[in-house]
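Q: what sequence does this backbone want?
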C-alpha cells in the first residue's frame, strides 16, 4: 500500500492537485504555474519530499513560485506556514538559497511579497517548535525533509513518551491535546519510516539507547505499523 505523502505536502501541494481536479479554473491555474516553472507535478512533489537527499535550491524556488500562484494555498496560513518553515530550514544553512529568496521577494508584490518576506524572516531567526500539537509535527517533518537531521525526528518521537492518567481518571484538556499529538506522531512516524529509510534508522537508533520501556513499546509498534503499510 502506497503511503500518503508527508502531511504538509499533501495539504499544500498534493492538496492542490486534488482540489484542482477536472477542467476547473484552479486546475488551469496550477497547470499554467507548473508550465511556467518547467515542472511536472511529480517533480514538484519529489523536490519537497526528498529535498534532504538532493539539495536543489533552484527547483525549490520554482516550487515556491507555483505555491504562491495558488490563492487557496498562499492565503491559508494553516497549510502554508509549515511549507514556509520547510523552506526556511533549507535556507538556514544555504546562503545561496537565502539570496535566491531575497531576489524573489524583490520581484513580488502584495500577498506574495509578504509571504516570501516571512520565509526570509523565519530563516534569519530560525526557531524549531516543540511537538506540542499535530500542527507543529508538520513543522518538524518539514525540518527533517529539508535537512535530513535527526533532531526533529527525535522531537516527534518524544511525543510518544508520556505517562497517561489512570483509565478511570478524567482527562484534562492538556491530556486530550497530548493524546491527539501522540496519535498523529505515531501515524506520521510509521508512514515516514516506510517512505524514508533514514527515519527508520533513527527510530532503531533510539530503540538501542537507554529509555523508558513505554517509549520502546511505542516505537516497536511504530515499526510494526510501518511494515504493514508496505504490504
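A:
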Amino acid at each position: 500500500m502506497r503511503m500518503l505523502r508527508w502531511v504538509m505536502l499533501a495539504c499544500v501541494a498534493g492538496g492542490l492537485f486534488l482540489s484542482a481536479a477536472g477542467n476547473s479554473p484552479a486546475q488551469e491555474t496550477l497547470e499554467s504555474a507548473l508550465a511556467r516553472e518547467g515542472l511536472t507535478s511529480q517533480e514538484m512533489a519529489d523536490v519537497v519530499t526528498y529535498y534532504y537527499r538532493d539539495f536543489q535550491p533552484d527547483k525549490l524556488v520554482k516550487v515556491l513560485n507555483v505555491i504562491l500562484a495558488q490563492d487557496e494555498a498562499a492565503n491559508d496560513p494553516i497549510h502554508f506556514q509549515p511549507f514556509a518553515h520547510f523552506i526556511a530550514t533549507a535556507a538556514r544553512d544555504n546562503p545561496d538559497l537565502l539570496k535566491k529568496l531575497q531576489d524573489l521577494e524583490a520581484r513580488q508584490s502584495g500577498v506574495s511579497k509578504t509571504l516570501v518576506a516571512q520565509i526570509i524572516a523565519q530563516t534569519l531567526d530560525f526557531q524549531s517548535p516543540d511537538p506540542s500539537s499535530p500542527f507543529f509535527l508538520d513543522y518538524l517533518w518539514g525540518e527533517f525533509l529539508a535537512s535530513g537531521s535527526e533532531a526533529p525526528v527525535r522531537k516527534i518521537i518524544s511525543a510518544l513518551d508520556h505517562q497517561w492518567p489512570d483509565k478511570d481518571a478524567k482527562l484534562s484538556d492538556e491530556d486530550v491535546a497530548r493524546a491527539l499529538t501522540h496519535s498523529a506522531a505515531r501515524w506520521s512516524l510509521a508512514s515516514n519510516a516506510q517512505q524514508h529509510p533514514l527515519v527508520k534508522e533513527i527510530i532503531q537508533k533510539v530503540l538501542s539507547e537507554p529509555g523508558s520501556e513505554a517509549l520502546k513499546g511505542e516505537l516497536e509498534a511504530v515499526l510494526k505499523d510501518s511494515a504493514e503499510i508496505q504490504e
